[in-house]
Amino acid sequence: MILILSGCSYLKLFRLHLNSPIGNLVVVYGYIFRYFDAQNNSSSQSMNTQKQILLLLFCGISFASQSVSPKREYYEIRTYFFKEKSQEEKVDKFLKDAFLPALHRAGISRVGVFKPIETDSTFGKRIYLFIPYKSIDQFFKLPEILQKDKLYETTGQEYLNAPYTAPPYTRIQSVLLCAFTGMPKMEVPKLTTPVTERVYELRSYEGHTEKIFKNKVQMFNTGDEVGLFRRLGFNAVFYGEVLSGSRMPNLMYMTTFENKASRDAHWNAFRDDPQWKKLSAMPEYQHNVSKIDIFFLRPTSYSDI
C-alpha cells in the first residue's frame, strides 16, 4: 500500500516536470532514489523491484519530455519606404554599421536584410528587415537594450538624429509573427550561388476570416505543406502567423532559391507533386486564401542570411 501511494505521489511530481529540461528529471529521480533507500523496513528484493519500476517510469517520462513541441520563435518584418536614393543610402549605412551589430551584441543573430530585385517596380524604394526573436519578451526588451547601447548611439547618430526636414525614410511598416508549429525555428538557407543571383520569395496569404485563416495554417502544419516544401528543397527561412500588422488575418513565409530559373522549376515541381494534388483537393482545405502577395527579394551584402 505504501508503494502505491508513494508511486502516485511521485507520478504527480514527475508530471510537473514534463515541460522542464531533462536535467530537472535527473535531479528529481535522484531525490526519489534517496527516498526509497531511506525505507529501512523494506526488504532488499522489494527495494530492487521498486527501483526497477521507477527506472522504467523515469525512462518513459524522459522520452515524453523530449517529445514536447519545441518553443516557437517570433519574427519581425520591418519595411522601410523611400522616395529618394539618399534615404535608401542612409538606411543602408545605419543597418550595416549600427543596427545589425547592435542586434548581434544583444544576442540576436541571423538577421536578414533584403531589397526588391532589380526588375521590380519598387526597386530602390524599399528595404525589408527580418529579425528573429527567441521569445516575445526579447522583442519587447529590445528598445530598452538599444537605448543603453552607447556604441549603437554613436555609430547610428546620422540616422537616429536626422532632422524632420531630412528624414531617412517616408514610413516604416512593422509586422510581428509567431512561427508555425510545423517549423518552430527559422533556418538559414543552403545556397551556393552569388548573392546577386539569389532569389528570396516572401509570400503573404490573407484569409477571409480568422477561422478560415486558421484553416490555411492547419494545412501547412497538420496537412504537412511545410514538409512538402522541405522535401522539394524550397530552402524555407521561416513560416509565421501574423500577430500584428496592417493586413490581417494572414500568414507569411519565405523560401529561397539559387536563381530565378531554380525558383520557377521548384514551383513547377510543387504544382505537379502528387502530395500537393491530394492535399489541395481535400474538401476541408478549399477556399482558405482570399489574397496572395508575392515579393521577390535579394539579400544585401551585409545580411546574415
Describe this structure in words.
The structure is a single chain. With 305 residues, the protein is an alpha+beta fold. The protein has two domains: 2-66, no CATH class; 74-299, Alpha-Beta Plaits, CATH 3.30.70.100. The protein has helices spanning 2-16, 22-37, 44-66, 85-105, 136-148, 150-155, 157-160, 210-221, 225-231, 260-272, 274-280; strands at 74-81, 112-116, 126-133, 171-179, 199-206, 238-244, 250-257, 291-299. The chain has an eight-stranded antiparallel β-barrel. A hairpin with a 5-residue loop joins strand 6 and strand 7 (250-257). Helix 1 runs parallel beside helix 3 (44-66) and helix 2 (22-37) packs antiparallel against helix 3. The chain is globular, with a radius of gyration of 26 Å.
Highlighted features:
single chain, 305 residues, alpha+beta, Alpha-Beta Plaits, eight-stranded antiparallel barrel, 11 helices, 8 strands
In a few lines, what is going on in this structure?
The chain has 11 helices and 8 strands. It is of the alpha+beta class and 305 residues long.
